[in-house]
Amino acid sequence: MILRERLLAAGGLDGLFLSDHRSERDLAGIVSGGRDATVTAALTGRRVLLAVGGQMAAARAMIALDGLAARLALVPPKLAPEHIARIASDAEAEICVTDAEGVPPGALPGLPRIDAEDVFRAGSASSRETEWALATSGTTGAPKLVTHTLEGLAGGINTAATPEAGTVWSTFYDIRRYGGLQVFLRAMLGPSSLVLSEASEPVRDYLIRVGERHVTHILGTPSHWRLALMSAALDRLNPRYVRLSGEIADQTVLDALRIAFPQARIAHAYASTEGGVGFTVEDGQEGFPATLIGSRSGIEITVRDDSLFVRSSRTGRRYLGEAPETLIAADGFIDTGDLVERRGERYHFLGRRSGVINVGGAKVQPEEVETVINVFPGVSMSRVRARPNPILGAVVEAEVVLCAEADADLAALKKAIIAHCRPRLAGHKVPASVKFVDALPITAGGKLVRRGA
Amino acid sequence: MSLRSTVFAEIAAIAAEQEKRMPPITDDLVMLDTEFDSLCFALLVARMEDLTGADPFGEMDASDLPVTVGDLVALYDRAATRLAA
Predict the structure, then answer these.
(1) What superkingdom does the record give (chain B) (predicted)?
(2) In this prediction, does ipTM exceed 0.85?
(3) What are the boundaries of each domain within chain B?
(4) Which has fewest Cβ within 10 Å: A67, A134, A209, A407?
């Protein structure tokens, strides 16, 4: 399956569009625009890094490059330059597709660049299967790349069904992240129209755009939805299908959406970059029915040691990079690292085994934050963990043990530690609160006790 | 400090820390229509819990989600009354 071929074969592109906060484009024009043989030759069979600023450019480049590039590594937005460099190196990129808002000049020395505007004109008659590489959070805070095939990525999508008339998709997420890519592919394989979001856009402006384009199917994290529910512009939205993924969907947000959109199907999906789409729950209740454990069409789910394991053709194939960790165990299962607990006939999600904190869908490795805090004068050691938060699911909280001689003005010290973190960490990683403690529990092996912390 | 002035002061402080430009804070202001984003809002709720001991979001009805600053103040007012009771 090749994206552009699918779209051309599907026909019926008339009237379909792709829009973002700046412009609206005909899907037919994007798919069947003029071709440039020189650009095509420069990209054919190459390992390509896609590092553009906006989602419109990303969408057009993905359509142009699938079936042409040997590998397509997607750089999510707002990534630090050193993390972009890491992705380029792990992906063994040979060429970088970028634009004015993508990679800063001087970054990625030695990697040839090609302007995204040129790439939109790439495409050839012959086609190969492109390996897609998506970024996920790694154990040190640096992203890891997980490879997928387009078939695997689309494995949870019913590509045989014709979309309901008038279907328009949208996603609060970026389409270069797993959840958003699912929506991009649902729209492209439909085919149907798609409204793209913009990271820095206020919720109100996005909801107004979504309303004006008559979006019928829309995806967000529970955090995105909590915000939308608090916006005066929510009434612009009249969806038939509301989807949640990327975080644990609790009963409060599911109930609030049911009240706001009584006509809509409301579904919460369990999916991850590594494990692919696991399942979708539509009964309006948090967690998932125990009957989903076991084998169904194309997917097998099991619980081992309180952790959810998934085996299917939709999971990632492997990690890229030097000395990559093993993604798939010998028996074909992927450990999702998500802890679950059975209560009666339902399983409930408890959080991540590794202690990774999920701040509104953005992952935080506790160790990365601790490393920054621990260099602050007077700090002996620290432990970073999730503090439950009704807006973003969780925020970062630090417990800090001070050296004996440390400054005694604790209120000032707390502010100073947070101020120290702010320029050194992405906003969602900066502790929302700091608590001073006398000691932190250490395991027999000398490690900080994290689980159940 | 009254609950209203605490909420107003924390909104202003968080907006300054996060380098967000805010219009004058009034009861009618819809916070999410401004640059005050989800992270700012999450920080506000965490700090209000630290200051007042109340987390009204954790125990409210789904239909009660605050839209304006005035709604938010009222939500904390009700939570404070419950805590005092």
Answers:
(1) Bacteria
(2) yes
(3) 3-84
(4) A407
